[in-house]
Amino acid sequence: MKRLYKSDTNKVFTGVIGGVGEYFDMDPTLLRLAYLLIAILTAFVPALIGYLIAAIIVPGRHDDDIGALQ
Description:
- The protein is mostly helical.
- The chain is built from 4 helices and no strands.
């Protein structure tokens, strides 16, 4: 089963967009440009809030590994 994780290797801030790129097998640079365009068009606040929520909710790959060991 395919799951969404924050990327450990392809990240700028928290790895959310890198993880989305890995999940959908897309270039994260294109996704970052699309996110930047959305942020500009929505006056940054909604895009920033959405990114912060995703950074909190989306688990890192290492978080899932810890749960598998217990």
